[in-house]
Specification:
This protein is of the alpha/beta class. It has 13 helices and twelve strands. The chain has two domains: 133 residues, Aspartate Aminotransferase, domain 1, CATH 3.90.1150.10; 241 residues, Aspartate Aminotransferase, domain 2, CATH 3.40.640. A seven-stranded mixed β-sheet has the order 2-8-7-6-5-3-4, with helices on both faces. A three-stranded antiparallel β-sheet has the order 9-10-12, covered by helices on one side. Strands 1-11 form a two-stranded parallel ribbon. Helix 2 packs parallel to helix 7 and helix 5 packs parallel to helix 6.
């Protein structure tokens, strides 16, 4: 059976260079980074080098990069500390954010009396920025705006510069979940005035279990996890040295090869959209995922013209063919509720049809896409 992986928005394959880097760290650099002997200093030096590498590429200061266990922890850290330490009483977001943000907002509403505001969306899933401006003008109290840069299910790209400018003009804090864009898009945080960001290494061919939060250095926030004074006092716990150097390697390679790999991956997306339209009349695309200028080059979310009863067998059919993709996002797998993102933007009749997210990387080929399209065509027609 052929094996084809098109679920890169869920997680990515480790680059061989990252595996080599991490293997060396596990075998030879086992000192605790907080220890003062040579073993500890070696690990600590490498961690600080990784911090500087990331900060330099983002146009940030090294002290603004806080290593975490991934994007979910970074999102939790930012939202919860903003309420606890900065006096935030209002959070503006949308109903199609990652659950790391949405569930955290729910908790802050229930336990800390925060007032949530959810922006309306157009039919493509884009937030109403005029409504954002109006809310920022009218709200009396400290505000945190939390809007993801790239939606992990439909791929829409937020006009992040406009949002940042609005927040700056109104004295609001701005947090963006950038898990789907770090490693795929260049950044210059000296130009885009974001207060907080979240990233995860496994989205750009690094290891799972590590990521980082960007917290602007003029923000007076305190430790999220109590214990030692690691990570500038923001996050206690012995740093996973092997994961951090793996993150650094993946991050460096992502940006060193960005132009070439983006061109390849964008070519796959363009080819997939064109060929699947030819093969399956009536196929539709969710959000702006088929609009190349308005969505990320890394994914497509499509809807097949089959009834709800037949739709129940779709993932089983694809799995039998060795094809990996997502119904909604991988974070939703096992849930009977379906995709909260698609539920927010589709009409009920469209929700009955099966939707699939195919997400690409430089490790994929057009031959693999041909195999997938043939499998989809067979399923629709039989």
């Amino acid at each position: 059976m052929k094996s084809v992986y098109f679920d890169n928005a869920a997680t990515t394959q480790l680059r061989p260079e990252v595996i080599d880097c991490m293997s060396h760290a596990l075998a030879h650099c086992y000192g605790n980074p907080s220890s003062t002997h040579s073993f500890g200093r070696t690990a600590k030096t490498a961690i600080e080098k990784a911090r500087k590498t990331i900060a330099h590429r983002l146009g940030a200061h090294p002290s603004e990069i806080i290593f975490t266990s991934g994007g979910t922890e970074a999102d939790n850290m930012v939202l919860k500390c903003a309420v606890r330490d900065l006096g935030v009483t209002h959070i503006i977001s949308t109903q199609i954010e990652h659950h790391a943000v949405l569930h955290t907002i729910d908790e802050l509403v229930d336990h800390h009396g925060v007032t949530p505001h959810y922006l309306s969306l157009d039919s493509y899933g884009n937030p109403n920025l005029e409504e954002l401006a109006s809310l920022l003008t009218d709200i009396d109290g400290k505000v945190l705006v939390s809007l993801m840069h790239i939606n992990n299910e439909i791929g829409n790209i937020l006009d992040i510069k406009t949002v940042a400018a609005l927040c700056e003009a109104h004295g609001a804090y701005f947090h963006s979940d950038t898990v789907q864009s770090i490693g795929h898009y260049p950044w210059d945080l000296s130009e885009v005035k974001i207060h907080f960001m979240a990233a995860a290494a496994h989205k750009f061919h690094g290891p799972k279990g590590v990521g980082f939060a960007y917290i602007r250095k003029d923000i007076p926030m305190k430790s999220f996890i109590a214990g030692g004074s690691q990570e500038r006092g923001f996050r206690a716990g012995t740093e996973p040295y092997h994961n951090i150097v793996g993150l650094e390697k993946a991050f460096e390679m992502a940006y060193d090869n960005l132009d070439k790999e983006k061109l390849h991956t964008l070519g796959l997306k363009e080819y997939f959209i064109e060929e699947v339209k030819k093969a399956i009349p009536g196929v539709a695309f969710n959000g702006a995922s088929d609009q190349l200028e308005k969505s990320t080059y890394t994914l497509v979310n499509l809807r097949l013209p089959v009834n709800s009863q037949k739709a129940q067998m779709l993932l089983f059919h694809l799995d039998l063919q060795g094809i990996a993709c997502s119904k909604g996002s991988a974070c939703q797998s096992g849930s009977s509720k379906g995709s909260h993102v698609l539920s927010a933007i589709l009409e009920s009749k469209d929700l009955e049809a099966p939707s699939l997210r195919f997400s690409f990387s430089m490790m994929n080929t057009k031959e693999e896409l041909d195999y997938v399209i043939a499998a989809l065509k067979t399923f629709v027609e039989k």
